[in-house]
Amino acid sequence: MIVYENSVKGKGALVGEFGNKMLITFGDSAPDTLKDYCYSIDVKNTVEKIEVGQKLIIDDEVFEIMLVGDIAEQNLITLGHITINFTGETEVLPGSIVVENKPCPNINIGTVIKIEK
Predict the structure, then answer these.
(1) What's the pTM?
(2) What does the alpha-carbon distance between residue 65 and residue 98 come to, in Å, rounded to a whole number?
(3) In what order do the strands lie in the sheet with 55-58?
């Protein structure tokens, strides 16, 4: 079951500054100081709650969700803002999701980002 689905519609000039261990998205209301570091997406609702154990899917690559920050889902559905850490770490910032320790795949305009149950 698809919990959330969106596609990348823009790419900031500095998205590569964080290497392949972090992905940041933002809707059209991204602050000017952050726009260059973010992938732009539309603001969309989730169908169900985002939870540990679900799968983050970027195009065809699958990542297990290890941790979900307290305000991560709220930021995603109200601002289009989420930080995804591809580190497998055991701590999470309130607005972030941590997935298993694998490199983030290449992301381009049109890349589909999904969360599935």
Answers:
(1) 0.94
(2) 6
(3) 2-7, 112-116, 55-58, 61-68, 96-99, 82-85, 22-26, 39-40, 10-11
DSSP for 19-66 reads: TTSEEEEE-TT--HHHHTTSEE------SS---TT-EEEETTEEEEEE
User: Measured between alpha carbons, how far is 3 from 65 in angstroms, rounded to an integer?
Assistant: 13
pLDDT score at 70 = 97
The residue among 43, 90, 98, 47 whose CA lies nearest residue 68 is: 98
pLDDT in tens, 32-62: 888 999 999 999 999 999 999 999 999 999 9
Residue recorded with tokens 């709220």 = 74
Task: Confirm if 59 and 72 have CB atoms less than 8 A apart.
Answer: no
Q: Give the separation between CA 112 and CA 47, rounded to whole angstroms.
A: 16
